[in-house]
Amino acid sequence: MPLWWIVHEVDGERRIFIQKADGLIFARLYAAAAGFDGVFVEGHKFGEETAEKVPEDMVGRALSAREVKELLARMTGDRARMVRLRQGGIAGQSPRADEME
User: Fold this and answer.
1) How far apart are CA 101 and CA 66, in angstroms?
2) pLDDT at residue 75 is higher than 90
3) Does residue 52 register a pLDDT over 60?
4) Can you tell me whether residue 19 is helix, strand or coil?
5) Domain range summary for the chain, segments of one domain joined by +
6) What is this structure's pTM?
7) 92 closest CA partner among 3, 4, 5, 10
8) CA-closest candidate to residue 46, choices 66, 65, 71
9) What three-state secondary structure class fits 25?
10) Given CA atoms 94, 66, 70, 43 in this order, what sign does their dihedral have?
């Protein structure tokens, strides 16, 4: 089943939720049922190769800013990106669409 990267804005900050679902609408519904509040900003379907890099314990819940940083570094395999993320903070950032493929 596909994985989705869901972004909501809560109190001016972006929050990330990873969800398994057959479509974005279902991913959003499951996230809402799990208590993921805020205003929907965007959602991205993970490509197969990228989805395999997501640890199972990160699926079905909101991620902390630190977990998002770790996941992005794992997905891209880019140490330089990890350094940039540490310098800038991640809570308000979403991945570029090409990182999700």
Assistant:
1) 22
2) no
3) yes
4) strand
5) 3-91
6) 0.73
7) 10
8) 71
9) helix
10) negative
